[in-house]
UniProtKB/TrEMBL annotation:
InterPro entries: ArAA_b-elim_lyase/Thr_aldolase (IPR001597), Low_specificity_L-TA-like (IPR023603), PyrdxlP-dep_Trfase (IPR015424), PyrdxlP-dep_Trfase_major (IPR015421), PyrdxlP-dep_Trfase_small (IPR015422). The keyword Chaperone does not apply. Keywords: Lyase, Pyridoxal phosphate. One of its GO terms (biological process) is L-threonine catabolic process. This is Unannotated protein. The keyword Lyase applies. Pfam families: Beta_elim_lyase. Belongs to the threonine aldolase family. It comes from freshwater metagenome. One of its GO terms (cellular component) is cytosol. Its cofactor is pyridoxal 5'-phosphate.
Length: 349
């Protein structure tokens, strides 16, 4: 058996999703004439209570288009130190938009509103950088798929309003947060000025994210999308996969969460310090290998030899991500295989 747990981006379109893509009505999206992508943008905007959306090929682009509508060149965006927008978008905010960033550090990426609000420096005059926006990631990828507290989000929004700051939501896995917490998408959406929503992670589409905001901001973002070379033509073929994902793959995210919890519990039973199952909120299992006498890369190689692929993201940090291509048989095989690898590693040196 071969089980790929490196990311929820590795899923393959089902036959039914491929059929939906093949039959999608299409047009030229640069001219605004693709009915499938138009309806997808409108649908996702409505889900989150926003006026408009723009389809992008990646979540990184959706994030970058959104934040540049909030933060001018030379101004400052605040974000958590391990957030995707800071760590995994290759400095795009600075390179493309002249945006500077400062960060706060939070255990497992969990938001505490005061951490961000206390370091904000809006309206700093002619000699200091002014903060104009704060970004929140929900769920927090490198924090282990943690779900942000809606109460802390509310507090952040309240404090941001008082200071004249805008808020951006990196919602790459917001559907996981929605399913895990039971909080509606509109209730998340109402606190943020801009949102990025990914369709190609837990929802299983092969490509696609949507940037959401007011009609005015999205009109500007659409121009920048074209300027960045991401104006697309008959993109309804891809948008149809997004529609299919929204129709069929939201509620089933609970299965991914259950399977992640199963794997975490199995590994915890071998060595408690590797993972605390109570910290596994959604579909990501972060492995702390500090008490294991091999590196994360070595652990990943041993797992791969047994048919289980995981990601080594640091010297002693590995990540497991469950997704819609993983069934219970894959879950059980992965959990037992990884537990065996961990047990062997503990006595190897």
């Amino acid at each position: 058996m071969r089980v790929n747990l490196r990311s929820d981006t590795v899923t393959l379109p089902s036959d039914a999703m491929r059929a939906a893509m093949a039959s999608a009505p299409v047009g030229d999206d640069v001219y605004g004439e693709d009915p499938t992508v138009n309806s997808l943008e409108e649908r996702v905007a409505e889900l989150f209570g926003k006026e408009a959306g723009v389809f992008t090929p990646t979540g990184s682009l959706a994030n970058q288009l959104a934040i540049r509508t909030l933060v001018a060149p030379g101004e400052e965006l605040l974000a958590e130190s391990n957030s995707h927008i800071v760590r995994a978008e290759l400095g795009a905010a600075a390179v493309f938009s002249g945006i500077t960033t400062r960060t706060w550090t939070a255990e497992r990426g969990l938001l505490h509103a005061q951490d961000a609000l206390s370091m904000a420096k809006p309206n700093s005059g002619a000699y200091l950088v002014s903060t104009t926006a704060i970004a929140v990631e929900n769920t927090h990828n490198f924090g282990g798929g943690t779900v942000q507290s809606i109460e802390e989000i509310r507090k952040l929004h309240e404090g941001a309003q008082e200071q004249g700051l805008s808020l951006h939501l990196d919602g790459a896995r917001i559907f996981n947060a929605h399913v895990a917490s039971g909080i509606s998408l509109k209730d998340y959406g109402k606190y943020f000025d801009t949102i990025s929503v990914c369709l190609s992670k837990g929802l299983g589409a092969p490509v696609g994210s949507i940037a959401l905001s007011t009609s005015e901001r999205i009109t500007k973002a659409r121009i920048w999308r074209k300027r960045y070379g991401a104006g697309m033509r008959q993109v309804g073929i891809l948008a149809a996969a997004g529609h299919f994902a929204l129709d069929n793959n939201i509620a089933r995210l609970a299965d991914d969460h259950r399977r992640a919890q199963f794997i975490a519990t199995k590994l915890h039973s071998v060595l408690a310090s590797v993972v605390d199952p109570q910290h596994v909120h959604t579909n990501i299992v972060s492995l702390n290998l500090i008490d294991v006498p091999i590196s994360a890369s070595e652990f990943a190689v041993l797992a791969k030899e047994e048919g289980v692929l995981i990601s080594a993201l640091g010297p002693k940090f590995a990540r497991i991500v469950t997704h819609l291509d993983i069934d219970d048989a894959s879950m059980e095989y992965s959990a037992q295989t990884l537990a065996n690898v961990l047990q062997r590693a503990l006595v190897s040196k």
